[in-house]
Structures are given as structure tokens and as C-alpha cells.
Amino acid sequence: MKLSAIVLCYVSFFRFDDLIAIRWQDLKFSCTHLELYVPDSKTDQYRKGETIFVARLGGQFCPVALIERLLTVGQYKTSGPGSLIRTTLVCPPSQRLKANPPCYDTVLSWFKEAASLLGLNPKLYGTHSGRRGGATGAAARDVPDRLFKRHGRWRSDRAKDLYVRETLQSRLATTRNLGLQEDIPIAQLRAFEAEA
């Protein structure tokens, strides 16, 4: 449950409220992707809902495969409609899913635990880390702004840009692309001085 929730937040740019609003019966699987219907969101001012498309990636962290496994292991079809991410009742030697979604503090603890397992400072991570991390990853890989803004359900560039943390390499790209590291011919420098 924890891994599925964290990966889903990252690839869908979800915050806590978006995550717990997803209902398992609204998911649509295909051979290439998963469609997640978000019924309402902080960014959805008219409450018309939005569909998020998540690609099938393959590998152990494929978000679509993780959700499919969660639905199978959790036996969702026997428990009736409800939230995809649910509270787990642990009764050794087994666990079972409850019908209600986890509270904010529980999901927050999942992010902090994941940060600790990765050797990161858990104090720096929270429920917005998936949204911020996904947005930063998309920006670092040059996903076109229009697509990445739509995926995150942002209406303005300003709102989207608040979530992106620039990498050191991208911040250094400005000075690296000014042409100063190349040999500048003396004649070009003299021409520049003459114009000044």
C-alpha cells in the first residue's frame, strides 16, 4: 500500500487530498496505460473532475503494475466500492484492508519512512513531496510545459513553477551556455571593445 501510494503521488503529481479521492472502481486499465479519475481537486475550481493518464513503464516500480497488484492482493472486488488507498488493519499473522482511507498523519509517515529508507532526511519530506518530486523530475527531463502543466492540473505557469526545484546542473546551464568557455578570437574581442 505504502509503495503504491508514494509512486502514485510521484507519477500523478498528487497531493494528499488527490490521493485519497481516487476510487478503485473508477480506474481504467489498458495495455499501455492507466486512467485515474480525480473527482475534485484544489486546482479544479469548477469541480468538473479530471482524468490523469499514467503510462505503463515496466520494471519493479511501474505505477500501473503496482496498482494492479494492490487491487489483486487487497481483494478490492470483495470489499465493495471505495477509496483506492485504504487503512490497513494488522492482526498477526495477517492484514486486511478497511473501507476508509488513511488519515493525513498516516500518509505523512509513509513519506517520512520512505525518505529514511533511502538515507534522506525525513524532516524534509511530506505529503507534497510526490507532487514536487514529480514536477521537478518532469522539468529536469524537459517535458514540454504544456503537457506537464496539464498533468499536474495547474492553471498558471506561476503555480506550476512553485513546485519545481531546479537541479544544480540546470542552474549552471545558463552560464555554461554563454560561450565563455570557448576560445574567443582576439579580433572578436577588439570588435566588441570598439563598439563599446
Automatic annotation (TrEMBL):
Membrane-spanning regions, if any?
A: none
Q: Which GO terms describe its molecular function?
A: DNA binding
**Protein name according to UniProt:** Tyr recombinase domain-containing protein
Per UniProt, the keywords (alphabetical) are: DNA recombination
What Gene3D superfamilies does this protein map onto?
A: Intergrase catalytic core (1.10.443.10)
GO BP terms: namely: DNA integration; DNA recombination
Q: Fetch the PANTHER family from UniProt.
A: DNA ADENINE METHYLTRANSFERASE, PHAGE_INTEGRASE DOMAIN-CONTAINING PROTEIN
Provide the taxonomic classification.
Eukaryota, Viridiplantae, Streptophyta, Klebsormidiophyceae, Klebsormidiales
